[in-house]
Amino acid sequence: MTFILLIVGFALLLVGADAIVTGASTFARRIGISEMAVGLSVVSIGTSLPELVVNVMASVQGNAGLAIGNVLGSNIANGLLILGVAAVIRPLPITERTLLSEIPFTLAAALLVGFLANAALFSVPGPLTISRIDGAILIFFFLLFLSYLFGVARDTLSATSESGPTLPALARMGGGCLALAIGGKWVVDSALDLGGQFGMSESFVGITVVAIGTSVPELMTSAVAAYRGKSDLAIGNVVGSSIFNLLWVLGVSALINPIPFDVLSNSDLAMVIASSTLLIGAVVLGSPRAIARWEGGCLLVTYCAYLAFVVKRG
After folding, report:
1. Where are the domains of the chain?
2. Distance CA 52, CA 253 (A)
3. What is the C-alpha to C-alpha distance for residues 125 and 115, in angstroms, rounded to an integer?
4. pLDDT tens-digit profile of 88-116?
5. Which residues have CB under 8 Å from 304's CB, separation 6+?
6. How far apart are CA 266 and CA 251, in angstroms?
7. pTM here?
8. Residue 302: what pLDDT?
């Protein structure tokens, strides 16, 4: 039964990803805003629903290792695995706005989480934790990011839009998000069950099995978007999802229940920062500004090396 749910879950993720990509693209054309703005907002939030559901459940149940591992592992998968796969399928052009604004914002969000999680090291010695106040700070910066998105949508609003109803496109995106949420939950539950059968620790399952499982919606969505030539949706989905995970998902989780932070998780946080830095380097080295296929392959190799490190670390 576990394997059946896993297969059906992946099928729902694929169907949901395709529905979101086509629906979001149509919606953008209908109202005259860029696909990047839609990818950064609607699509990224929709594909991050599994991370949000898993983290809320983990926080309520007091499973801190699972909560922090899920967010950090998902963001590492976003920057290395997902963008790597999408770039191998089709080179991904990067706009100047994304290079100078959105990607650095992702890097800043990771640095903020690192500072808040390790704040105790700079004051009175004590256990490291992401407190409720820290959670409120993260949510505040997420609201600032939302205000930025509104500005992006306004700036990219076109005077001409494609005629036609928007309701079917919205319905398709809504149905896609629902399929992703259900499929993601089944994939995660099945992965947790299989991980338990092999005697994996909570933190290990969080940073690997659950993180990869909850990142499957982003993977499917960005892969389908790249295949359809919708590079802005692919990039916007990954960048927006990473920011959503670090600021909103982690912030809400900390508000529900303060999250103890293991000092060993700093190595995973460093990998999140490194993945954003590698992304900037890949774009700068690309000609024209794009993530080339060979660079996507390098991102995949880096992700495999990271997984080998996590397995060795135990």
Report:
1. 2-313
2. 8
3. 15
4. 999 888 877 787 888 889 999 999 999 99
5. none
6. 18
7. 0.81
8. 93
What architecture does CATH give domain 2-313?
A: Up-down Bundle (1.20)
Q: What is the 3-state secondary structure (H, E, C) of the chain?
A: CHHHHHHHHHHHHHHHHHHHHHHHHHHHHHHCCCHHHHHHHHHHHHHCHHHHHHHHHHHHHCCHHHHHHHHHHHHHHHHHHHHHHHHHHCCEECCHHHHHHHHHHHHHHHHHHHHHHCHHHHCCCCCCEECHHHHHHHHHHHHHHHHHHHHHHHHCCCCCCCCCCCHHHHHHHHHHHHHHHHHHHHHHHHHHHHHHHCCCCHHHHHHHHHHHHHHHHHHHHHHHHHHCCCHHHHHHHHHHHHHHHHHHHHHHHHHHCCEECCCCHHHHHHHHHHHHHHHHHHHHHCCCCEECHHHHHHHHHHHHHHHHHHHHHC
Which residue do the tokens 């990271």 mark?
A: 306
Bridge partners, 291 (sequence order): 92
* Tokens describing residue 271: 């990998």
Average pLDDT value over all residues in the chain: 81
Q: Which two tokens stand for residue 39?
A: 């990818």
Alpha carbon distances (Å) from 263 to 55, 120, 125: 20, 11, 13
User: With 0-12 CB in 10 A as exposed, 13-18 as middle and 19+ as buried, what is 275?
Assistant: buried
Count the residues in the chain. 314
* pLDDT (0 to 100) of residue 156: 62
> Are 187 and 213 a contacting pair, CB within 8 Å?
yes
What confidence tens digit (pLDDT) does each residue in 179-203 have? Answer: 877 877 787 777 777 777 777 766 7
Can the peptide bond before residue 288 be classed as cis, meaning omega within 30 degrees of 0?
yes
Nearest to 12 by CA among 49, 45, 61: 49
